[in-house]
Amino acid sequence: MARVRTRPRRRAGVLVAATAALALASTGTAAAGTPAPATGKPRGHDVSSHQKRVGWPAARSKGARFVYVKATESTSYRNPYFAQQYNGARKVGLVRGAYHFALPDKSSGAKQAAYFVRHGGGWRADGWTLPPALDIEYNPYNKKHKCYGMSKKRMVRWVRSFSDEVKRKTGRRPVIYTTTQWWKLCTGNSHAFSKSNPLWIARHSTKRPGTLPGGWQYWTFWQHKSRGRLPGDQDLFNGSASRLRVFARSR
């Protein structure tokens, strides 16, 4: 998602281990190599301040059923349009959640998680709130330091620190948004999160999400295009509309 800050960032749940595996399986999630056509899978999108004031009734009429809204970045940035985007989505009947854009070289995972939860990254089991999400990907501010100058072990520790703090504060593990290539490069393809954190895979293709990283057997969300009929990036949920609501309220 990596447009950043004023150019807004981005682009290029929680479930304990057993619960996560069960929930993902029950959503009808497909294995990594299985095609994932839009037919039958709820369409969604993700937005940041780049989209400014989103026309939510129009997004709903065009097929949106869920959305992730950027809330924060590092510990120094808050999306100025967050309230309109997050609350507006709920008013038209979309399941919505918040995401945080990670800058691991700026502060600890725990500090960024606390900042995120404090400024929109919370969760409640109402069936309308998606688990908090961590967007961790290529460094948009320094292309020479794709992994933010961190070793693979340090990066895994950073993600664990973020995940643990979100779990402590909200009761859910965050969804992890990433690409297979970045995860391999910067975490050594760590399998440490595949049984506890749902995967939001980014691969801009209309056919399939491809090989998944880090031991994940299923994807929960797939960002498959940067442009489409909905504002922001285009996403799919790997299950039915009813399973989306179950996923939103499950611990």
Radius of gyration, whole Å? 16 Å
Query: In angstroms, what separates the terminal alpha carbons?
Result: 26 Å
Series of H and E elements: HEHEEHEHEHEHEEEH
Task: Flag low-confidence runs.
Answer: 6-38
CATH class of the domain at 17-39 and 70-83 and 101-142 and 149-219: Alpha Beta
What is the percent of helical residues?
25-40%
Shape: globular
Estimated share of beta-strand residues: 15-25%
The CATH superfamily of the domain at 17-39 and 70-83 and 101-142 and 149-219 is identified as Glycosidases
The biggest beta sheet, please?
8 strands, mixed, barrel
What is the fold-level CATH name, i.e. the topology of the domain at 17-39 and 70-83 and 101-142 and 149-219? Answer: TIM Barrel
Instruction: Write out the strand line-up for the largest beta sheet, numbering strands in chain order.
Output: 1-2-4-5-6-7-8-9
Question: What is the arithmetic mean of pLDDT?
Answer: 88
Per CATH, the architecture of the domain at 17-39 and 70-83 and 101-142 and 149-219 is Alpha-Beta Barrel
Overall SS class = alpha/beta
Q: How many separate helices?
A: 7
Please count the beta strands (DSSP E, at least 2 residues each): 9
